[in-house]
Write a structure and sequence with these properties.
The chain is of the alpha/beta class. The protein has 6 helices and 7 strands, in the order E-H-E-H-E-H-E-E-H-E-H-E-H. It has a 5-stranded mixed β-sheet, sandwiched between helices.
Length: 180
């Protein structure tokens, strides 16, 4: 959840301060790690942890030690904020919740924007040709229809929604009654 990167891993004051923060975060159940690698540059470490998907990076330098703060960088939007050491556990938990919520809303909005509905096979083929994403369509659950659609459009069935509509239409391929 959190990676702590001291600006200079050879500076004992920075490392000691960083270890204090690690201990306080672990006490409240936040998963945290401390990056003391000396062979990599600071930029490499930042990028490495971003690629690994760690949501929050704490940067610790002399200024942070002197002011008893930490600089937090969010992976999802790149914003940096300075947090007082005494407020770190509460503020980081709030940030983690906010990141989770923001990512969920972004994913939900993306799904809605990239989901189309096809009422018949010509609609389905047009959507497949013109756009990317998911297509909602009725299906009779006959494997032959699925094979034919895949052969003709390269589309595959990926998701059968938990919430089914009350009115079930006809299969877009064979026109037989769709199934729930």
């Amino acid at each position: 959840q959190v990676i702590i990167v001291p600006i200079d891993p050879n500076d004992n004051a920075l490392v000691f301060y960083s270890r204090e923060i690690v201990d306080s975060l672990k006490k409240v159940g936040i998963r945290v790690d401390l990056d003391l690698r000396e062979a990599q540059t600071l930029g490499y470490k930042f990028n490495d942890w971003e690629l690994l998907g760690v949501p929050i990076r704490l940067e610790i330098g002399q200024k942070e030690v002197e002011n008893k703060t930490a600089t937090a960088a969010r992976r999802d939007n790149g914003k940096k904020i300075t947090i007082k050491k005494g407020e770190l556990t509460e503020e980081l938990q709030h940030l983690l919740d906010e990141i989770q919520s923001d990512l969920f809303l972004k994913a939900r909005d993306f799904l809605v924007e990239h989901t189309s509905e096809a009422l018949d096979y010509s609609d389905f083929r047009k959507i497949m040709k013109d756009s990317k994403g998911f297509i909602k369509a009725f299906w009779c659950e006959n494997p032959l229809c699925e094979v034919k659609i895949k052969e003709e459009t390269k589309a595959t069935i990926r998701v059968i929604p938990f919430e089914q509509p009350k009115d079930i239409g006809a299969c877009i391929y064979c026109k037989k009654p769709g199934k729930v």
